Amino acid sequence: RIGLYSGIYLIIALIFVMGRRVMPFFIEKGVDYPVQLKNRQWLDVSSLVLFLAFWIADLVRPDTLPVALLALALLVLHAIRLVGWYTPGIWKKPLLWVLYVGYGWLVTGFALKAAVVFIGISPFLPLHAFAYGGIGMITLGMMARVTLGHTGRNVFDPPPVLLFWMFALLLCGAVIRVLLPLLDPAHYMAWIGLSQGLWIIAFTLFLTIFLPMLIRPRRPVWIAGFCLLMPVAPPLLLDPNQ
Q1: Strands, E, within 89-238: which ranges?
Q2: Residues contacting residue 20 through CB under 8 Å, at least 6 positions apart
Q3: Domain range holding 112?
Q4: Which of 7, 111, 230, 231 has the most CB within a 10 Å radius?
Q5: What share of the chain is helix, strand, coil (3-state, %, to 5)?
Q6: How far apart are CA 210 and CA 205, in angstroms?
Protein backbone atom coordinates (compact mmCIF):
# COMPACT_ATOMS: atom_id res chain seq x y z
CA ARG A 1 0.00 0.00 0.00
CA ILE A 2 2.77 2.46 0.87
CA GLY A 3 4.42 2.00 -2.53
CA LEU A 4 1.16 2.28 -4.49
CA TYR A 5 -0.10 5.40 -2.74
CA SER A 6 3.32 7.06 -2.66
CA GLY A 7 3.66 6.54 -6.41
CA ILE A 8 0.26 8.09 -7.09
CA TYR A 9 0.82 10.97 -4.69
CA LEU A 10 4.23 11.69 -6.22
CA ILE A 11 2.66 12.00 -9.67
CA ILE A 12 -0.07 14.25 -8.25
CA ALA A 13 2.58 16.44 -6.60
CA LEU A 14 4.36 16.80 -9.96
CA ILE A 15 1.06 17.74 -11.60
CA PHE A 16 0.46 20.42 -8.97
CA VAL A 17 3.95 21.88 -9.38
CA MET A 18 3.99 21.82 -13.19
CA GLY A 19 0.29 22.59 -13.61
CA ARG A 20 0.66 25.75 -11.56
CA ARG A 21 2.89 27.10 -14.33
CA VAL A 22 1.68 25.56 -17.57
CA MET A 23 -2.10 25.44 -17.20
CA PRO A 24 -2.68 29.22 -16.86
CA PHE A 25 -0.20 29.75 -19.71
CA PHE A 26 -1.94 27.25 -21.98
CA ILE A 27 -5.35 28.76 -21.23
CA GLU A 28 -4.18 32.34 -21.83
CA LYS A 29 -2.63 31.40 -25.18
CA GLY A 30 -5.34 28.97 -26.24
CA VAL A 31 -8.61 30.89 -25.87
CA ASP A 32 -9.81 33.18 -28.64
CA TYR A 33 -9.72 36.38 -26.59
CA PRO A 34 -7.30 38.17 -24.25
CA VAL A 35 -7.34 36.88 -20.69
CA GLN A 36 -4.88 37.14 -17.82
CA LEU A 37 -4.87 34.47 -15.13
CA LYS A 38 -2.95 34.92 -11.91
CA ASN A 39 -1.39 32.51 -9.45
CA ARG A 40 -1.39 33.34 -5.75
CA GLN A 41 1.85 32.66 -3.91
CA TRP A 42 0.12 31.85 -0.63
CA LEU A 43 -1.97 29.29 -2.45
CA ASP A 44 1.06 27.72 -4.11
CA VAL A 45 2.94 27.32 -0.83
CA SER A 46 0.04 26.24 1.37
CA SER A 47 -1.28 23.69 -1.12
CA LEU A 48 2.10 21.95 -1.40
CA VAL A 49 2.77 21.98 2.35
CA LEU A 50 -0.68 20.59 3.12
CA PHE A 51 -0.39 17.99 0.38
CA LEU A 52 2.89 16.75 1.88
CA ALA A 53 1.17 16.51 5.27
CA PHE A 54 -1.78 14.70 3.65
CA TRP A 55 0.60 12.27 1.93
CA ILE A 56 2.40 11.38 5.15
CA ALA A 57 -0.80 11.17 7.20
CA ASP A 58 -2.47 8.84 4.71
CA LEU A 59 0.52 6.49 4.81
CA VAL A 60 0.87 6.49 8.60
CA ARG A 61 -2.81 6.56 9.60
CA PRO A 62 -4.90 5.94 6.49
CA ASP A 63 -8.52 7.04 6.29
CA THR A 64 -8.59 8.74 9.69
CA LEU A 65 -9.89 12.12 10.81
CA PRO A 66 -6.57 13.98 10.24
CA VAL A 67 -6.48 12.67 6.67
CA ALA A 68 -10.08 13.78 6.09
CA LEU A 69 -9.45 17.27 7.47
CA LEU A 70 -6.34 17.71 5.34
CA ALA A 71 -8.28 16.48 2.30
CA LEU A 72 -11.00 19.06 2.95
CA ALA A 73 -8.39 21.82 3.23
CA LEU A 74 -6.81 20.72 -0.06
CA LEU A 75 -10.26 20.55 -1.64
CA VAL A 76 -10.85 24.21 -0.77
CA LEU A 77 -7.39 25.38 -1.88
CA HIS A 78 -7.46 23.67 -5.25
CA ALA A 79 -11.08 24.67 -5.87
CA ILE A 80 -9.95 28.29 -5.38
CA ARG A 81 -7.15 27.68 -7.88
CA LEU A 82 -9.56 26.18 -10.44
CA VAL A 83 -11.93 29.14 -10.10
CA GLY A 84 -9.00 31.49 -10.68
CA TRP A 85 -8.05 29.62 -13.85
CA TYR A 86 -11.55 29.47 -15.29
CA THR A 87 -12.62 31.23 -18.44
CA PRO A 88 -15.54 30.09 -20.66
CA GLY A 89 -13.38 29.81 -23.77
CA ILE A 90 -11.77 26.58 -22.58
CA TRP A 91 -14.86 24.57 -23.54
CA LYS A 92 -14.24 25.31 -27.23
CA LYS A 93 -10.74 23.83 -27.06
CA PRO A 94 -10.42 20.10 -26.24
CA LEU A 95 -6.72 20.51 -25.42
CA LEU A 96 -7.69 23.01 -22.72
CA TRP A 97 -10.79 21.50 -21.15
CA VAL A 98 -9.20 18.06 -20.84
CA LEU A 99 -6.51 19.52 -18.56
CA TYR A 100 -9.02 21.60 -16.62
CA VAL A 101 -11.40 18.68 -16.10
CA GLY A 102 -8.50 16.40 -15.20
CA TYR A 103 -7.44 18.84 -12.51
CA GLY A 104 -11.05 18.89 -11.35
CA TRP A 105 -10.90 15.13 -10.85
CA LEU A 106 -7.97 15.61 -8.48
CA VAL A 107 -10.13 18.02 -6.49
CA THR A 108 -12.93 15.44 -6.56
CA GLY A 109 -10.48 12.89 -5.20
CA PHE A 110 -9.91 15.04 -2.11
CA ALA A 111 -13.67 15.34 -1.60
CA LEU A 112 -14.07 11.57 -1.82
CA LYS A 113 -11.11 11.06 0.50
CA ALA A 114 -12.93 13.05 3.16
CA ALA A 115 -16.15 11.17 2.41
CA VAL A 116 -14.40 7.89 3.21
CA VAL A 117 -14.13 9.02 6.84
CA PHE A 118 -17.32 11.04 7.24
CA ILE A 119 -19.73 8.95 5.17
CA GLY A 120 -18.06 5.57 4.90
CA ILE A 121 -17.72 5.19 1.14
CA SER A 122 -15.22 2.76 -0.37
CA PRO A 123 -11.60 3.93 0.03
CA PHE A 124 -10.93 2.84 -3.55
CA LEU A 125 -13.17 5.54 -5.05
CA PRO A 126 -10.85 8.47 -4.28
CA LEU A 127 -7.96 6.38 -5.60
CA HIS A 128 -9.82 5.94 -8.90
CA ALA A 129 -10.62 9.67 -9.01
CA PHE A 130 -6.94 10.50 -8.58
CA ALA A 131 -5.56 7.87 -10.96
CA TYR A 132 -8.19 7.42 -13.69
CA GLY A 133 -9.81 10.84 -13.75
CA GLY A 134 -6.96 13.11 -12.72
CA ILE A 135 -3.71 11.47 -13.82
CA GLY A 136 -5.32 9.72 -16.80
CA MET A 137 -6.96 12.77 -18.36
CA ILE A 138 -4.05 15.14 -17.69
CA THR A 139 -1.56 12.61 -19.08
CA LEU A 140 -3.58 12.08 -22.25
CA GLY A 141 -4.06 15.83 -22.73
CA MET A 142 -0.38 16.63 -22.20
CA MET A 143 0.77 13.83 -24.52
CA ALA A 144 -1.51 15.18 -27.25
CA ARG A 145 -0.31 18.76 -26.83
CA VAL A 146 3.38 17.89 -26.58
CA THR A 147 3.17 15.64 -29.65
CA LEU A 148 1.65 18.45 -31.71
CA GLY A 149 4.15 21.03 -30.49
CA HIS A 150 7.29 18.95 -30.83
CA THR A 151 6.47 17.61 -34.28
CA GLY A 152 6.21 21.13 -35.70
CA ARG A 153 2.42 21.31 -35.72
CA ASN A 154 0.15 24.05 -34.47
CA VAL A 155 -1.25 23.24 -31.01
CA PHE A 156 -4.03 25.75 -31.65
CA ASP A 157 -5.22 23.77 -34.69
CA PRO A 158 -5.29 20.13 -33.53
CA PRO A 159 -7.03 17.21 -35.28
CA PRO A 160 -10.74 17.95 -34.76
CA VAL A 161 -13.35 15.24 -34.22
CA LEU A 162 -11.34 12.25 -33.00
CA LEU A 163 -9.49 14.40 -30.49
CA PHE A 164 -12.75 15.43 -28.83
CA TRP A 165 -14.00 11.85 -28.65
CA MET A 166 -10.69 10.61 -27.28
CA PHE A 167 -11.02 12.95 -24.30
CA ALA A 168 -14.79 12.51 -23.97
CA LEU A 169 -14.50 8.72 -23.76
CA LEU A 170 -11.92 8.98 -21.00
CA LEU A 171 -14.15 11.43 -19.13
CA CYS A 172 -17.10 9.04 -19.42
CA GLY A 173 -14.87 6.25 -18.16
CA ALA A 174 -13.90 8.32 -15.12
CA VAL A 175 -17.55 9.00 -14.31
CA ILE A 176 -18.36 5.29 -14.62
CA ARG A 177 -15.34 4.25 -12.57
CA VAL A 178 -15.79 6.75 -9.73
CA LEU A 179 -19.40 7.90 -9.48
CA LEU A 180 -21.57 5.00 -10.64
CA PRO A 181 -20.32 2.68 -7.86
CA LEU A 182 -21.70 5.25 -5.41
CA LEU A 183 -25.14 4.96 -6.99
CA ASP A 184 -25.12 1.25 -7.80
CA PRO A 185 -22.43 -0.59 -5.80
CA ALA A 186 -24.00 -3.97 -6.58
CA HIS A 187 -22.62 -3.80 -10.12
CA TYR A 188 -19.17 -2.54 -9.11
CA MET A 189 -17.23 -5.04 -11.24
CA ALA A 190 -19.36 -4.21 -14.28
CA TRP A 191 -18.50 -0.51 -13.89
CA ILE A 192 -14.83 -1.41 -13.55
CA GLY A 193 -14.90 -3.48 -16.73
CA LEU A 194 -16.78 -0.82 -18.72
CA SER A 195 -14.41 1.93 -17.62
CA GLN A 196 -11.42 -0.24 -18.56
CA GLY A 197 -12.86 -0.66 -22.04
CA LEU A 198 -13.31 3.09 -22.46
CA TRP A 199 -9.74 3.68 -21.25
CA ILE A 200 -8.42 1.25 -23.89
CA ILE A 201 -10.50 2.86 -26.65
CA ALA A 202 -9.37 6.38 -25.68
CA PHE A 203 -5.69 5.51 -25.73
CA THR A 204 -6.14 3.52 -28.95
CA LEU A 205 -7.56 6.68 -30.52
CA PHE A 206 -4.48 8.52 -29.28
CA LEU A 207 -2.26 6.04 -31.12
CA THR A 208 -4.44 6.30 -34.23
CA ILE A 209 -4.14 10.09 -34.31
CA PHE A 210 -0.64 10.71 -33.04
CA LEU A 211 1.50 7.65 -33.86
CA PRO A 212 1.87 8.72 -37.53
CA MET A 213 3.12 12.11 -36.31
CA LEU A 214 5.66 10.50 -33.98
CA ILE A 215 7.19 8.12 -36.54
CA ARG A 216 7.50 10.67 -39.37
CA PRO A 217 10.13 13.42 -39.65
CA ARG A 218 9.42 16.63 -37.79
CA ARG A 219 7.70 19.28 -39.87
CA PRO A 220 9.94 22.27 -40.69
CA VAL A 221 9.25 25.40 -38.67
CA TRP A 222 9.05 28.67 -40.57
CA ILE A 223 10.20 31.76 -38.67
CA ALA A 224 10.62 35.16 -40.32
CA GLY A 225 10.83 33.54 -43.75
CA PHE A 226 13.50 31.00 -42.76
CA CYS A 227 12.94 27.27 -42.61
CA LEU A 228 14.48 25.40 -39.69
CA LEU A 229 15.28 21.88 -40.90
CA MET A 230 17.06 20.76 -37.73
CA PRO A 231 15.29 18.15 -35.56
CA VAL A 232 15.04 20.54 -32.63
CA ALA A 233 15.17 24.31 -33.01
CA PRO A 234 17.64 26.37 -30.95
CA PRO A 235 16.14 27.84 -27.75
CA LEU A 236 15.84 31.36 -29.15
CA LEU A 237 14.03 30.14 -32.26
CA LEU A 238 11.53 27.79 -30.70
CA ASP A 239 8.02 27.92 -32.07
CA PRO A 240 5.92 29.77 -29.42
CA ASN A 241 3.16 27.20 -29.95
CA GLN A 242 5.37 24.57 -28.29
Answers
A1: 221-223, 226-228
A2: 39, 44, 81
A3: 2-237
A4: 111
A5: 75, 0, 20
A6: 8
